[in-house]
Amino acid sequence: MIAMRESLKVDGRTLSVLALVLSLTPGCITEPDTLTNDASNVILQILSMGGQAVDDQGPGSTTTDLFSDVCFGVPGACSVFNDNGVVTMRAIPKDRTQLSNDINSVTIERYRVTYVRADGRNVPGTDVPYPFDGAANFLVPFDSADTERAFVVVRHQAKTESPLREIQADLTAILSVIAQIDFYGHDSAGRAITVTGYLNITFADFANGP
User: Fold this and answer.
1) pLDDT in tens, the chain (210 residues)
2) Nearest Cα to 133, choosing from 147, 151, 121?
3) Residue of 27, 178, 196, 202 with fewest CB within 10 Å of its CB?
4) Positive or negative torsion for Cα 79, 158, 171, 54
């Protein structure tokens, strides 16, 4: 930032004006190379994405699409459970001539779930559940075995809020969404890596209970 003093004449009077000039050069506003140059040597692949519906017996089997029960039990005696997503990832080198190196292994730190509808009606809390962020802490080894992890894809509180709350006790109401899951992490050299997967979810008050 540079300060400059100038003189101006207004109605015959001389006024002294102090002008502050902000000098911007390419070196003043920068971003980490991990964001601008795609510096990592690794490609993070999502090999599969599935879902696990959860009830009072715990997580069910993993399915390609998730069928999420918004009310477990009978009307007036409802229990709600979170539902899980299950992702399988692999970290592979951009250059296949690279030798395996632990510095290229990827640690996933967090993820974000956003719900969308095919008809474009995507207002959180009205048309779809609210998006949310979740913590993660798992390693995807470089050029090695596939890594599978479960994570929460539908929170308990989503089933007590609109629009899922209105589906409870209405056996004819069904809401179909696509969950976009963005995973954020870094390789062992600190270079940022992101990858995105998708999961079909059908919400309904499925028949259960006595």
Assistant:
1) 444 455 545 455 544 444 433 333 444 433 334 444 466 788 899 999 999 999 888 999 999 999 999 998 776 678 999 999 999 999 988 876 666 677 889 999 999 999 999 999 999 999 999 999 999 999 999 877 899 999 999 999 999 999 999 998 787 899 999 999 999 999 988 999 999 999 999 999 987 744
2) 151
3) 27
4) negative
* Residue 149: its H or E element: strand 147-154
Q: Is residue 68 part of a domain?
A: yes
Return the H-helix or E-strand segment holding 107.
Answer: strand 106-116
Q: 21 lies in a domain?
A: no
CATH number of the domain residue 142 falls in? 2.60.40.10
User: Rg of the chain's alpha carbons, rounded to an integer?
Assistant: 26
Domains in the chain: how many in total?
1
Residue 164 — φ and ψ, nearest 5°?
-75, -30
> Virtual CA dihedral for 42, 191, 109, 30, nearest 10 degrees?
-140
pTM (predicted TM-score)? 0.77
